[in-house]
Amino acid sequence: MIGLKAARHAIRVPKGSRVATGPLSSARATVLEKSRRRPFFDDLDLTSSYFRIRNIQPFSTTASSRYHAAPESRQRIVGAEPGSQTELEEAQNESDAGSNAQIKIIDYCADRVEQHDIPASALDGYGRKLSKPDWAACRWIYVNGLDTNVVTTLGNEEGLHRLALEDVLHTTTPTKVDWYKDHCFIVMTLQKLVELRQETQARRLSNPLEHLPHTRSNPRHQKWTTLTPRKHSVSVEQVSLFLRSDNTVITIFERSGPEILQPILTRLDSSKTIIRSSNDASTLVQAVIDTIIDISLPIGKDFSDAFGELEQEVLMNPTVNQSTEIYTLRSELSRFRDLIVPIGAVVRTLRDVHAMGRPVSPGADDGHNASQNPDETPQDGPENHSGVFPKPLISPVTRTYLSDVNDHITTLTTTTHALIRSAENLTSLIFNLITAKQNESVRQLTIVSTFFLPLTFLTGYFGMNFDPMPIVNNHSDVMFWYIATPVMASIALMMVARSAWASRRLGRLWRRKSAESQRAGRNS
Questions:
Q1: Beta carbons of 388 and 357 less than 8 angstroms apart
Q2: What is the pLDDT of residues 453-486, one digit of tens each?
Q3: Helix%, strand%, coil% for the chain, nearest 5
Q4: Which of 296, 283, 300 is nearest to 190 (CA)?
Q5: Distance between CA 29 and CA 20 in Å, rounded?
Q6: What whole-number distance in Å separates Cα of residue 432 and Cα of residue 489?
Q7: pLDDT band at residue 230 using 50, 70 and 90 as cut-offs
Q8: Phi-psi region of 436 (alpha: psi -120 to 50; beta: other; left: phi over 0)
Q9: Which candidate, 279, 295, 191, 294, places its Cα nearest to that of 235?
Q10: pLDDT tens-digit profile of 368-413?
Q11: Rg (the chain; Cα; Å)
């Protein structure tokens, strides 16, 4: 009882609180004191469908890592209405409004292109200040940097559905395409190969992440350890696209927008390109998707080179440790493939959606004032055959070029799947080679043991302590060699003869099998 009172007094636990008896370290007392002052829900991770207690590590103040932690993803209050801004998101609205978001508005037609840079702080009301000119056939609104205030303003100005806006803000949204009455919404992942750089702690804290660590709670943040020896890593981020029926395209990138923007602007500068001369916004969507796939191609090439080097090491000197490297390679290849395959499904949906006759539900709103009208729902498939048909958002020309994009995706996924199968076969090869080496070692030990077994027997016989023992007492050690030498020679001849007989037998069997296979080939 005295120890319990002393412990309560030492950590200042309120009266009536339950405390475990026994010695308490100062570190544990610090944790209990902090947990007493902090609400319980601060230690809950609400980003998944179930509660998880986060690991509390208040003592590692000097520990550092090459891959620093990513910012916490936007969270939803449990039970909140889908598409509504939660209290947490409203707080983030005030804190990150206009933070590092780059916005461009590009109007173009077959004869003319104009580009405007819009500050994030001046985005509100841009539809009235910078309306689409009469000469412009298409408008591209480009946003680089995920900002809650910017996304909400775009949704209000362009009449985007609030469910789609919610998916934009939550970067764990799976790759998909949703159809609304006057626009469609596309989400996909952008994977790119980046070079690892030695960065100071200050730079890591001030700059956005390019390569993120892999954790089970957030599988999109992955450290690609197979490529680390090659000074490479893979960055994964979400890309959101809106295609409106008035030929307006909205693209929202997390941080890698310039790598998509520059090649497309180069194509827009030329009046001879299809994206410029077609006066069709769906060709711009196709160009964005095609560029995303093109950026992913070097990843597959780097994985292929890494696999080739690992395969050469296995063939020259197989070790058990290589199986760990192969497992890591298989996991990363599977992750890469799992992020590419859904993009192929989206491309095929965009290509075939109007051929399937996808309708819009009766009475759905026109998509405007999306923040006030929550009743519209996206269509999940072509099985609903009631209602009106939307205006085709994907032109026949775009569908033709989407088939080409689908071919690139199929080639990439097929190559990746082949590498995964080869990695599995390489694992089997490692253990087969190691087993064969062990069997050869056992065979050699068996030969040596068999060769010296008679000597062991003779040594034991002549070394017995019987007295009298005439064969030992009346003869010198020469008698031992008179007996041992013929025995060893006989056993050696028997082993050589048996080995030669086994070799001849295996040779006959091999020649017989070869002759049978040749006859079967001629008969076929």
A1: no
A2: 777 777 777 777 777 777 777 777 777 777 878 8
A3: 55, 10, 35
A4: 296
A5: 12
A6: 36
A7: low
A8: alpha
A9: 191
A10: 444 444 344 444 433 333 333 345 789 999 999 999 999 999 999 9
A11: 36
Q: Are 161 and 180 in contact (CB under 8 A)?
A: yes
How many helical (H) and strand (E) elements, i.e. helices and strands, does the chain have? 14, 9
pLDDT at 142 over 70: yes
Domain 87-433 has CATH 3.30.460.20: yes
Sign of CA dihedral 501, 505, 510, 512: positive
Which two three-digit tokens encode residue 398? 């775009």
pLDDT band at 85 (very low <50, low <70, confident <90, very high): low
CB atoms within 10 A of CB 385: 8
Ramachandran quadrant class, 238 (left: phi over 0; alpha: psi -120 to 50; beta: rest): beta
Section 251-279 average pLDDT: 92
Measured CA to CA in angstroms, residue 26 lies from 5, 6, 10, 31, 36 at distances of: 16, 14, 9, 9, 15
Q: How far is CA 12 from CA 2, 37, 39, 198, 416, in A?
A: 15, 11, 17, 45, 59
**For the chain, domain boundaries:** 2-53, 87-433, 463-523
User: Tens digit of pLDDT for each residue in 284-298?
Assistant: 999 999 999 999 999
Q: Say if strands 138-144 and 44-45 run parallel, antiparallel, or are unpaired.
A: unpaired
Say which residue, 422 or 94, is predicted with more confidence.
422
More confident site: 365 or 256: 256
* Structure-token pair, residue 280: 């069709």
Alpha helices in 255-395 (DSSP H): 257-268, 274-277, 281-316, 321-356
pTM, full prediction = 0.66
- Phi, psi at 164, each rounded to 5°: -65, -40
